[in-house]
Amino acid sequence: MADKDYTNLLLEQIRDEVKAVHELVADVPKMSDFRRLEQRVDTLHADVKVIKSVVRSHSGKLAELDARVSSREAA
Question: What is each CA distance from 59 to 45, 63, 69, in whole angstroms?
Answer without folding.
Answer: 21, 6, 15
